[in-house]
Design a protein that fits this description.
Gyrase A, domain 2, alpha+beta, 8 helices, 19 strands, about 35% strand, Elongation Factor Tu (Ef-tu), domain 3, about 400 residues
């Protein structure tokens, strides 16, 4: 007797993944078939070779599809006041044509997410981030003359990063891009409309991010790749980008910290000071901001429990998700991201530690690494020391004018 085609053994379950406006070009270049789900989109972990894709960032021009990044349009007479209420930094200091890195918290001062706020005009902003927050943003907008709408599907995004990134823009005909300083943005003509280009990125390198209406995404891709051939332009996946961001000491929501809406355990919640974002807090700004009272109270009472640090670890075996010990015995934290850095030639990591470890106590730290050696795991205890971030600092990232390689 043959089993029914509808028996559980025969059923196949597939999860539908969205394609970005650049998907036809990415699919044509994908030779590794390594994909992951990013906010419901099918995104490449690698496209041709993770190792070489990393070196494309550091020696050529690398293109990464940012389209799945969540994007919100915030506009209206009270847009500035609204953004000043929900985010940590003083938005009144953010001029039109500028971008800043910021974060936002719940009423208890726990970080909901971090991201970039683009001031496109005096009354119009774009907020880019990892998680979806539309209900929270709409609730927070009560009483403000402001409109908040998600535009993730409407706006396609590309990161163009690496030492030849500006040369690609120049040869693609984006006249005036050389005037963009770090965190500047401007609009440039493209086809019958325009493209917004900001001098921003997630690699710690010379780089730009380009935002264009979805219907003009493929023509922008083709324009960049035609101009970029002499400059070694290559498309890359997330694995290579992740290596570069670790070298730059940058953190990822739900990777290096658990966002407040996702935390199931109370001890997983983090305040800005506990994940290296304390520099954003402007306690003197005129506007009240979400979590202000709780954040300042934790500072005053010294009740902050964690600290996020950079570590340099002996040896060359990456310590990803390794436990951190003090004097090889007391468990004091966990490594959230780690690589052997090809650029720094160091074994580096980002770790969350329990205070005072990593803060006032930084001596005699160890990490416990398990490395596969011919079908058996070998336990290694390696010394670690707290070091400043970024682990790699490249002058070309902030060079003005940008390099012309």
């Amino acid at each position: 007797m043959q089993p029914s085609p509808h028996t559980p053994a025969q059923l196949q379950f597939r999860t539908f993944r969205l394609g970005t406006p650049f998907q036809p070009r990415i699919d044509a270049l994908a030779s590794t078939s390594e994909w992951f789900s990013w906010a419901g989109y099918r995104a490449p972990l690698s496209l041709w070779d993770e190792e070489l894709e990393y070196f494309a960032i550091r020696s050529q021009a690398a293109v990464f599809d940012l389209s799945p990044m969540v994007k919100y349009r915030i506009e209206g007479a009270d847009a500035e006041a609204f953004c000043n209420k929900v985010t940590l930094r003083d938005v009144t200091k953010l001029r039109p044509g500028r971008v800043h890195y910021t974060a936002w918290c719940d009423d208890e001062g726990h970080v909901l997410d971090d991201g970039t706020l683009f001031r496109l005009s005096p009354t119009r902003f774009r907020l880019c981030c990892q998680e979806r927050h539309l209900p929270w943003l709409l609730d927070s907008a009560e009483g403000f003359d402001v409109t908040v709408a998600e535009e993730t599907e409407e706006v396609a995004g590309l990161a163009l990063q690496g030492p030849t990134a500006y040369a690609v823009l120049r040869d693609a005909g984006f006249a005036g891009a050389e005037r963009l300083k770090v965190f500047d943005l401007a609009d440039f003509p493209h086809e019958s409309g325009g493209v917004t280009i900001s001098r921003t990125g997630f690699t710690g390198d010379l780089g730009y991010e380009l935002f264009v209406p979805a219907e003009r995404a493929l023509s922008l891709w083709d324009r960049l790749f035609e101009a970029g051939r002499p400059h070694g332009i290559r498309a890359i996946g997330y694995a290579a980008l992740n290596r570069a961001r670790i070298e730059a000491g940058l953190i990822v929501a739900d990777g290096d910290f658990v966002t407040a809406e996702h935390a199931l355990r109370h001890d997983r919640l983090r305040m800005p000071d506990e994940i290296g974002l304390g520099f954003m807090i402007d306690a003197k700004k005129a506007a009240h901001f979400n979590g202000r009272r709780a954040i300042l109270e934790a500072r005053g009472k010294k009740t902050l429990r964690h600290i996020l640090v950079g570590l340099e670890i002996e040896g060359n075996v990456p310590a990803e998700h390794a436990i951190v010990y003090h004097r090889g015995k007391r468990d004091v934290g966990l490594v959230s991201a780690a690589i052997w850095s090809p650029t720094a030639k160091r074994n580096i990591a980002i770790a969350s530690l329990e205070r005072p470890y990593g803060d006032s106590v930084t001596d005699d730290l160890w990490v416990e690494i398990y490395a596969m050696r011919e079908l058996r795991y070998q336990k290694m205890m390696k010394r670690a020391r707290v070091v400043p971030r970024p682990f790699v600092r490249l002058d070309r990232r902030t060079a003005d004018p940008p390099g012309l390689r």
